[in-house]
Amino acid sequence: LGAKGLGCVDCHRVRGQGGEIGPDLSDVGAKYERVQLIESVLEPSRQIVEGYRPVIVATTEGRVVTGIVKSESAATLELIDADRHRIVVRKADIEERRASETSLMPDNLAATLSPDAFCDLIAFLASLRSSQQPFPGSDVVGPLALPHGFASRVVAEGLTGATALEVTPDARILICEQTGTLRVVEHDRLLDEPALCLTVDSEWERGLIGVAVDLRDPKTDYVYTSAVIPNPPRHRISRFRMDGNRAKPKTEFVLLEGDDQRHMGGTVAAGHQGGAIHFGKDGKLYIAIGEHTAGQPAQEMNTLLGKLLRINPDGTIPEDNPFYATAQGKYRAIWALGLRNPFTFAVQPGSGRIFVNDVGGVAEEINEGFAGANYGWPTVEHGPAKDARFRGPIHHYPTASIAGGAFAPRGDAVNLPKEYRAKYFFMDFVKGWIKVLDPEHVERVSTFATGLGRPVDLRFATDGALYVLLRDAWVKDGNFRPRTGRLLRIAYENKE
Ligand code: HEC
Q: Is residue 127 within 8 Å of residue 105, measured between CB atoms?
């Protein structure tokens, strides 16, 4: 633990070892989520732990001591100060006694740390847990039901505010935690160390909400993220270079900055953030951004809200974008508009077809993506297309909350029954199901799975295994609980 050099153990006990000025940290990973851990290291005085607020005592002889009260009798007060000295003051000598606003824990401990070392320290604190609490706040809709011959198992658990996942060409799985960490699953094991810790605004639906790699390039070591960053809150699309299972923060290259969310309106401005990013067949990076509950901006060409965007992987804007000639600046990235909350979308390998899952006000929609298309929100919400200005969905159902979508791989080598190959799988966050739609006959929709706890995203590995990300939590509000998320692997095991 690098924290030794930082003096943490001078004041804190961890598993029976260390000082006693501050609280025992053996279970601190269960007590707090990552953001709070970061806060308690960077700003110890912001929230002082009950029982550890120092007092400042001035004596009649003009001596001033600051420390945490360890014991108190009618005649004396025993304090421990920041230098770990025990000081006994006679009460008769006390002239003034008041509570301190400042923690005994110094606030500059992390100042000397590199971002990597700081990330390690926080990951270490998060790992300090005496008991593994299984899925607090679990909101499983029912027992998981799958078609005959399919089996599921839990690959990873304890994910905080899971939002999105990607399967890399070498079969690792990258998982976004809303609070800013990108986690890695390798050989079906969740690594303790995250690939990346981003500083994000994770209120409500904001946070780290999208991840992609360019699947057409098996050797790629770039990873792309979509996150809402703070001060002011805005989307940021970035590229990082991976080094093994870690992305170096120093390698961040910003591709696109979204609109300042303080000025965009919306009844719940931190809602409807969209977030998904994926590469198209054309090698361009597509980005979905929601309308922050503001409605009308989804129809306007001077905001990114309610749009599907298309940029080059280096952040420049392709000149063949549909509004390149008419829009200004970064808004030339707009590729399609009139969306409400395009939480996810998917690109079909081979055909390059793009299906956009748009969370609805009255209807959940799957829209097929076309350059320049307008899906009508908030002017109309489809149902079947009735208005020639707007493109209707290929599938819709009464409001719940549509979430992840993915195309199953095709080909005889894929371990999936024929009826599922090359089909579009989509899930609903509220209903807890996965359904299958035939892209060639979009009226053919059947149920694949039920009983999933707040599913958010899904992705196929090339062999046909389906990875399903369960959040098992609602938006990040005051009742939010960390570490409820799980990754399931669903595979066909009934081989003929
Ligand atoms: C000089 C003593 C001192 C040092 C050194 C110190 N701390 Fe603390 N720490 C405290 C005290 C006292 C508190 C309780 C008061 C507060 O909340 O700030 C505390 C609180 C905390 C908490 C919140 C614990 C809880 O149960 O809420 C965490 C986490 C923490 N420290 C981590 C660290 C880490 C990590 C380091 C090393 C980088 C460190 N501390 C170094 C004294 C110290």
A: no
